[in-house]
Amino acid sequence: MTGFIFLRVRAHRLLLAAALLAVLLTTAVLATLTAFSGSIGDAALRHSLRTRSAAQASLAVGAQVAPGARESAERAVREGARRTFDGLPVGIRSLARSGPYALPGALSGARKGARKGGDPDLTHFAALDRSRIRLTKGSWPSSYDKGPIEVALPEAAAARLKLGPDSAPLPLTDRLTGPKVTVKVTGVYRPADPTDPYWQLDELGGRGVRESVFLTYGPLLADPKDLGHVSAGRTQWLATADFDAVTTDRVGALRSAAQDGPGALAKSASLGGSPSASTSLPEVLDRAERALLVSRSTLLIVALQLIMLAGYALLLVARLLGTERGGETALLLARGGSRGKVARLATVEALLLALPAALLAPLLAGPLTGLLAGHGALARTGVRLDTSTGTSTGTEVWLIGVATALGCALAVVAPALSSGVGPLRGGRSAALPAPLRAGADVGLLVIAAVAYWQLDSRTSGAGALSGDGAGGLGIDPLLVAAPALALLAGTVVTLRLLPPAARLAERRAARGRGLPGALAGWQLSRRPLRGAGPVLLLVLAVALGLLAIGQGASWDRSQEDQADFRAGTQLRVLGSRVPEERQAEVYGSLPGVRDAAPAVRSTMDLADDRQATVLALDGARALPELLIREDRADRAALSDALRSRQTGAVATEQFLRSSGAAVGSRIDVPVTGSSLRVTIVEAVPELPTTGAQKETADTGTDGGALLLDLPGVNAALRANGGRPPAPTEWWLTTRPGASADAAAALRARPDIDPEQVLVRDEIAAELRDDPLGAGPQSALLAVAVAAALLAAVGFAVSAAGSLRERSAEFAVLRALGAPRRQLARMIAAEQGFLLAVALLVGVAIGAFLTRAVVPLIVLTGDAGRPVPPVLVELPLPQAATLLAGIAAVPFAITAALSLSRGDPTVSLRHEGGN
């Protein structure tokens, strides 16, 4: 039996080779997507915990500890940190500080801009972790013996106070109850990394100078032993975990430990007075888990579409194989073979196809995953994926590989198990298959419409995610399948278009005089569904490729739109300690800044516990450069609307719904303790920098927003005897490419905290470089390429099988004197017609699905709908490249088959023998 099986394989080696290629390609792609999904989840989680969320993921502990009890306190902190981080390796950094000290009055008075007769400038001592700082001048301070206490000064403080290692000793006055101390500056230091989470322990943030009610310099770095000679202060510790071994499977246990650990640690008796312990790790893990679900749902949506395409390609190859073996199968049955034995032969052959794929696909998954990570959107994030197969993800890859290979084997053997054998007749075939005549395509359309309606009706904006009874999120299988169902329904409807299109082609060809066109039209109308297989395959490939291109381009555009909406302008300062009278001068003189507009942001209470944002903005300065998408509002129209009345207001649609107002309504708006009556003159969908935060969106308390013209508000308040409000933020317009320099200058100021400076380009980079957002975009291109390859395999096999089936027909035409060139033109006309129909229908379905589905499946990292809504983009150059790539292989195959030279004598002799 083994020899007979191999003889059957040899006899149909080309078809079986095509089936093997399709099985291997499908299994490899799905195994790679599985490995990619697991690897990107783990890598993105670790990347977030080590970089952008490092400060929030750390454990901050503080207590009033006596100098002799610091060792026992640190042991308690270390043990509590291990419990908080679920047994992960932890590192402990400490910062012990003294009470406040006043600098000499002469030193403060000599400083430029010093306040006359005001409060003294302050400083304090601290024992810093010296691995976090770098000495730039002088030497490290040594332990106090006698004489002045040796200290090192931060670079920024040394520059402002004009102090250094050569300066004379300074007397400092204890602001509490202690005596004066004298210090000697021996060195100057700076933070090794100003963004290190360690500096959250320092009230100056590692910047050396901070201006608020007092102007504070420091801390003065001293030897830890010297803190016993100065007034006692608070000791703080920062515990950080080594997250290199953390995987997504451990998120639940880690979150539970992080929720319970800080409370238990704060109750430790070893921490002395006023202990505190806190971490935002549970919130970080919640965000990561939601982002992971969004990423996996996107990959599942793509994978289901690819499975559908691959399954159809395999069924097409298997059906052609069954047709080729029709005579052989009939002969086996005539000689006493049972249908069960024929089915067993087909099953063994299918398993021979599945075995290499099951073994090779998981081995290829690692290199292919690395290839995906090194190209596309994921490459710029700098994330490195673990592509080894010895992890839990590796086990899943092997399981998916084996399951996919067996599924492909079932698809290959299914026609042999289900179809009977009968004589092949050359008459006209039915215009439509029996399932379509029974309305199967209509039923499929209804199912797809219901799934799409469910996806579209998700008011929470969770896309393909659904909530459970406990308030958690999960992936909804029906909603994940909705895009694939819509794609399948649109493709199946194509079968109804082929018969009328074939009849139209026949009528057009009959008007001509050429033999090739007439024969091609006659053949198409005689058997319109003969080419349905490759047509449907190409339609699926084109539609899937366009959907992948549209989703990737729309996601990229959405990140830019979200950055514009969050920032509102190139640079925004959310607050500062710069004196109000100097703010316009300070912000307007920054490098690269073209204009600076003040703004006042407040809130307004509405009914049903809703709260609206009230933004008063200098429209003449800010609105011409407002970052708002053209389809959401027109900048010039907004400016004209605000200027049409002194107290005109632009309201969002959400505000109108929440307040019950309408355009033209006059409402009272609270401004700085008084009430101002304004007229709503314009309505827009949303306003940049306003709208619901995640908490208010979840609870339904967002009341929308109002935009007012700040100069008009100030004039109205003055007219009523009121006082104009002080600006709460500033909107800065910069020259192209200059926002980074202006932001750096702002963050270097002691009267502005770095987190108060919001830069549009930084927000965009953070959104684009999110590994869980960028990862699926890298996979989309791979899926589009795989779809094109599967379509090419299916078309080649179908075209070759069709021509082989009609070899006798061509032989008769050749024997009757038909020129070979005309037969080649006939083949080219038939296949070209099918290719054109496939491309046109595929483009139509792909463009429609992209417009309909992409806005529903592109989500934010928090599993919400982006604001502003996704603007679907389908780049023409990429779409044209896709169409050319998909059409190139069928075109080349058609050309090769048209020009192939066969011997009509052999075909006629074979036909006569039958």
Strand neighbour order, sheet with most strands: 21-22-20-23-19-18-24-17-25
| Beta-strand percentage range | 15-25%
Distance between the termini: 27 Å
Instruction: Report the major sheet.
Output: 9 strands, mixed
Task: Give the helix/strand class.
Answer: alpha+beta
Counting copies of identical and different chains, the oligomeric state is: single chain
Describe this protein with a few key phrases:
914 residues; alpha+beta; 9-stranded mixed sheet; 25 strands; elongated
Task: Summarize the structure in words.
The protein is of the alpha+beta class and 914 residues long. 53% of the residues lie in helices and 16% in strands. A nine-stranded mixed beta sheet has the order 21-22-20-23-19-18-24-17-25, with helices on both faces. A hairpin with a 5-residue loop joins β18 and β19 (611-617). Mean pLDDT is 81; it is low at 421-428 and 693-699.
List the helices and strands and how they pair.
Elements: H1 2-11, H2 13-50, E1 59-64, H3 70-84, E2 90-98, E3 101-102, H4 105-110, E4 122-123, E5 125-127, E6 133-138, E7 149-154, H5 155-161, E8 170-174, E9 181-191, E10 209-211, E11 215-217, E12 220-221, E13 232-241, H6 251-266, E14 273-278, H7 281-324, H8 326-334, H9 339-373, H10 392-418, H11 434-437, H12 440-456, E15 465-467, E16 473-475, H13 477-492, H14 494-510, H15 515-526, H16 532-567, E17 571-573, H17 580-588, E18 593-605, E19 611-617, H18 619-622, H19 635-643, E20 648-652, H20 653-659, E21 666-671, E22 674-684, H21 694-699, E23 702-709, H22 710-719, E24 729-734, H23 739-747, E25 757-759, H24 760-768, H25 771-805, H26 807-815, H27 820-857, H28 876-899, H29 904-913
Parallel strand pairs: 5-12, 7-9, 19-23, 20-22
Antiparallel strand pairs: 1-13, 1-14, 2-5, 2-13, 3-4, 3-8, 6-9, 8-9, 10-11, 15-16, 17-24, 17-25, 18-19, 18-24, 20-23, 21-22
